[in-house]
Design brief:
The complex is a heterodimer of chains A (466) and B (502). Chain A is built from 14 helices and two strands, in the order αααββααααααααααα. Chain A has 466 residues and is mainly α. Chain B is 66% helix and 6% strand. Classes of the chains: A mainly alpha (466), B mainly alpha (502). The interface between A and B is large, with 72 and 71 residues.
Chain lengths: 466, 502
């Protein structure tokens, strides 16, 4: 019985003009998105390789001794993610580079080809298409399920037979789901064909698994809106009213709530401005300078006849190392503040299923905020590795004074080979870790589905079908 | 007759659920968005005032002309509260020396790049998205709904001309929609008046008025879309569906994807190339400064004709403690050549950036032209022009930095900064003896000299809002909106004339 009801729903929908128009728009947008993505990705990859090679070339040519290495500032980058066509996650606006060295780890920068004069736009990825457009189409397909049938007079006819209400609901649910999934799948396949035939995007096995997972989440998301449509449809007697209610809900849930997160978060949780950071650093440096004994910053560099260093040199090194550490702490604190503010914004917007869907997809695919957090941690770990390497090499040199600090060249002058230097390598989270990051949002989606199903059922049970 | 139909439409619309829902939604969003925008503007204004104050204090620390490094700032535009545009996205502060433009940036602005994925909502966005949908909700059943209810044939059976019906419905819809529109604007303006930091000049009020008029044209456009589609279909539901498809295509999808297409099919020049070129020129400047110092100044230090306190090779920053009378003239003669060379290099660096900004702007404008297909985007463009926050106006600051530097150079030439000892010292003496203690040196330290007198230093005044210019910039898009209105009305009229009313 469920299948028959579903079949009828599918046939009705495929004859209607709205699904045809929706199908056309989906196909056009998917093709467009595929073409644009391959062009964009080519540029991103080229720029990335060039930047990394420039950094390595600089390392090779300028660094001859350990001393040079300690002063060297490297720029490290995160590689572009090929799965951006699934969920772009705001990658264009996110910082993708850090300047890192023995002494410093600065605030991250965005070194992509950025034209800041463009009006802000949302990237055309699957998440946008499904999250905004498909949810809209689904509401258009489902607003008539109950109230439309009542208006046509066919609902009382169906229920005068011994068919349980749950079966009708399920039948219609599957009907609508299949009606929308078929055009969507065709669109997705076209999109993948365009991307794969251009041959400059390489997808491995695990990437396909991620794509499948994103499709799975999309199923849950679409189902949510089908259920919402059916619920509201069984709350009114005239389909037009249910359509209006649904569309108002759509505007609030899909367009308004996901975007207010940023505003509200920056209201409730303020982060320091760049100006304040610089003032902070200056003030801390002044404080440390004043607290240090005068010997630390005066006096020449002279050794006593026994070849020992004067006491003040250790005090000076200590003072400068304190200043350097304080500066790095300030920068790190700023990055932590940035991340905290965005997490707050996200939590605020989790009222909207579109936002939940976006964050879950981002976590699975490995773009967006999660990728930035991973990158930041990787850079910090790399710096630790780099520092350890320099310190160990320095210890091995008996001629070195073993005092490495910014103001004077006291580190080992031993030559260091380019191959021995640890290099930064960018990596992605494993699938298990990605899922762990997405766990909250996926759970929310599943929970909401259950909730909406119960709601739809509950409301329909009490519906007057005459 | 038209008036009777108008009145009836107006009154019935007011009583419907959809109007009520739309009105409440508009109110809430207007309050929310204006509140947030006002807070942001007040913060920007505070930052601007602090910056101006700090720059003034910096000027009081200047002891010699070589130290003259003037900070310039741009104030936030008050109508950015209604339409944010690019006002808070483009640089608003810079420091200018005769041979350097530095620290150009958004030093005080909203600065968490991770938040860029969240768009900011302003009143214009609310109208662009919500009021257009409300317009569709009100007019989608203008013709088709009446046909379904059977009242259309009753109206036409009498001697009511078709054009009277159409006009009556159109004007009725406009009047209905004017209410939420005016309410949102009034609330926003009231909230702005209550804020102590905000005051509007008569010119500002005129621009607000033009914003209201543009919004009415935009809303009328969508009203006409609803009426037109209604007179092309037989049932109200199909009419609503089609109208909403049109809405989502033209308001959400097209503007987004036009930018998308231009952005990636013709990628922007990389800022790294510009930075690299700039570094090459700066190194040349550096070398030149170093050479000047080592060949033209240091010999005098070595000969003890100068008590040195500090200097900086690259950007010709020199503060020499005390200078023997005999060497002042030779130094000044050498200075003139070095200054000319430095200014030329600085001009080349400045040109680099101007070209880069122009390329970016061309790309952005190309994208905007394509996006103009969407009435929603046209509306936003016209509003940002009228509010003074469109790209051209936000970029004026960047363009004027170079002009200000030239003013500064002229000022310094007028004051003989480059041909007198005041470029590099405050103390010209006849005998320089051995300095044997810190106390003796302290006398010549720069911190202990009185501030340099710099009367009539050119002030950086950025007059951004020239009323005529602003209106002229907005007129293209407003014209486009009016064109759409006329086109849609003609189509609606023709299809209604052929409409089967039975």
């Amino acid at each position: 019985m469920i299948w028959q009801i579903a079949q009828q729903e599918i046939l009705n929908n495929s004859k209607s003009i709205k699904l045809i128009i929706a199908f056309l728009i989906i196909v056009i947008l998917m093709l467009l998105s595929g073409v644009i993505f391959t062009v964009k990705y080519e540029h991103l990859v080229k720029d990335y390789h060039q930047a990394v090679n420039d950094n390595l070339a600089q390392l090779k040519n300028e660094v001859k001794t350990l001393l040079d290495l300690s002063y060297q500032q490297q720029s490290v980058y995160t590689s572009p993610n090929p799965l951006q066509f699934c969920t772009e996650g705001g990658e264009t606006d996110l910082p993708n580079a850090y300047k890192v060295g023995y002494f410093e780890l600065e605030v991250p920068q965005n070194l992509k080809r950025e034209n800041f004069m463009f009006a802000p736009l949302t990237e055309l990825d699957w998440t946008f298409l499904i999250g905004v457009f498909i949810s809209f189409v689904v509401l258009g397909l489902s607003y008539r399920t109950i109230s439309g049938e009542k208006e046509d007079g066919t609902l009382r006819l169906i229920l005068s037979n011994p068919i349980p209400r749950a079966i009708i609901l399920l039948g219609k649910y599957f009907g609508i789901m299949i009606s929308i999934l078929l055009p969507l799948l065709i669109g997705i396949i076209l999109n993948l064909i365009v991307i794969l035939t251009r041959r400059n995007v390489s997808l491995e096995g695990l990437d396909w698994l991620r794509i499948l997972l994103v499709l799975g989440i999309s199923l849950f998301y679409i189902s949510l809106f089908v259920l919402l449509g059916m619920t509201v449809s069984s709350m009114t007697t005239k389909p037009v009213i249910s359509l209006i209610m649904l569309l108002s809900l759509w505007i609030i849930l899909v367009i308004i709530i996901p975007n207010t997160g940023g505003l509200l978060a920056s209201e409730f949780y303020k982060i320091s401005t760049r100006y304040e950071i610089e003032e902070n650093i200056k003030a801390t440096n002044d404080a440390i300078w004043n607290a240090a004994p005068e010997a630390a910053y005066s006096g020449e560099w002279t050794m006593n006849p026994k070849g020992e260093m004067p006491l003040y040199i250790r005090q000076r090194v200590k003072m400068v190392q304190e200043m350097t550490a304080a500066e790095n702490r300030t920068y790190q604190h700023f990055v932590d503040q940035m991340i905290h503010q965005v997490s707050l914004a996200r939590n605020i917007t989790r009222l909207s299923p579109t936002a939940i869907y976006q964050y879950a997809s981002e976590a699975i695919v490995g773009t967006g905020l999660e990728r930035f957090k991973l990158f930041s941690n990787q850079v910090r770990a790399y710096r630790g590795q780099f520092i350890t390497f320099i310190n160990e090499e320095d210890q091995k040199d008996p001629n070195s004074y073993h005092l490495i600090y910014r103001w004077e060249n006291l580190a080992s002058r031993k030559p260091v080979s380019f191959e021995a230097i640890p290099k930064f390598s960018d990596g992605r989270l494993s699938i298990r870790e990605s899922m762990r990051g997405a766990f909250l949002d996926i759970a929310l989606l599943v929970l909401l589905n259950g909730l909406f199903f119960v709601m739809a059922f509950g409301v329909f049970l009490r519906y007057d079908v005459r | 007759m038209i008036w009777a139909i108008t009145k009836k439409e107006f009154l019935t619309n007011l009583l419907t659920l959809r109007f009520f829902v739309g009105l409440i939604l508009c109110l809430l969003l207007a309050v929310l968005s204006t509140h947030v925008q006002i807070k942001a503007y007040e913060e920007e204004l505070l930052n601007y005032n602090n910056a101006v104050q700090k720059h003034k204090e910096d000027l009081a620390q200047v002891k010699v002309y070589s130290q003259l490094n003037v900070g310039i700032d741009r104030s936030p535009e008050v109508l950015s509260i209604l339409c944010e545009g690019f006002d808070r996205k483009l640089p608003n502060t810079a420091k200018v020396r005769f041979n350097e433009e530095s620290e150009i940036g958004l030093k005080f602005g909203r600065n968490n790049p991770l938040l860029k994925t969240f768009k900011s909502i302003d009143l214009v966005l609310v109208i662009q998205l919500v009021l257009s949908v409300l317009a569709l909700f009100i007019t989608y059943d203008a013709i088709a709904g009446e046909k379904q209810r059977g009242t259309l044939r009753q109206m036409l059976a009498n001697t009511v001309a078709r054009h009277q019906i159409l006009l009556g419905k159109y004007i009725g819809a406009i009047l209905t929609l004017t209410m939420p529109l005016l309410v949102t604007f009034i609330i926003a303006l009231l909230m702005m008046q209550f804020s102590p930091a905000i005051s509007l000049t008569p010119g500002d009020w005129l621009r607000v008025g033009s914003l209201v008029i543009t919004s009415m044209i935009y809303v009328s456009l969508f009203g006409l879309v609803g009426i037109m589609i209604s007179s092309l279909t037989r049932t109200a539901a199909v009419s609503l569906m089609l109208s909403l498809f049109v809405w989502i295509t033209f308001v959400v999808i097209i503007p987004n994807n036009a930018s998308f297409v231009t952005k990636y099919l013709k990628p922007a020049p990389s800022s790294k190339t510009v930075e690299a070129n700039k570094q090459v020129l700066e190194m040349e400047q550096n070398e030149q400064g170093c050479q000047f110092w080592s060949t033209k100044i240091y010999p005098f230090v070595r000969d003890s004709k100068i008590v040195l306190t500090w200097h900086n090779d690259r950007i010709m920053l020199m503060y020499l403690g005390a200078v023997h009378r005999d060497v002042v003239q030779p130094i000044v003669n050498n200075l003139k050549e070095a200054v000319a060379w430095q200014i030329e290099l600085a001009n080349r660096i400045s040109n680099l950036y101007q070209n880069y900004y122009n390329e970016l702007r061309n790309q952005a404008q190309l994208s905007n032209s394509i996006s103009r297909l969407s009435p929603g985007f046209s509306y936003w463009m016209s509003c940002s022009s009228l509010a003074g926050t469109n790209l051209k106006q936000a970029m004026q600051f960047l363009n004027r930095i170079r002009n200000y530097r030239e003013d500064l150079i002229n000022y310094m030439y007028e004051k003989n900064a480059f041909s007198s000892s005041l470029y590099f010292t405050r103390t010209v003496i006849n005998e320089i003896h051995q300095i044997t203690s810190w106390d003796e040196l302290n006398v010549f330290q720069s911190e202990n000299q009185p501030p340099l007198e710099i009367p009539d230093l050119p002030e950086f005044k950025l007059i951004r809002i020239n009323l005529m210019d602003v209106l002229a910039q907005g007129i293209i898009d407003v014209g486009l909106l009016i064109f759409w209105n006329i086109l849609l009305f003609i189509i609606a009229f023709v299809s209604f004339l052929r409409y089967d009313a039975r």
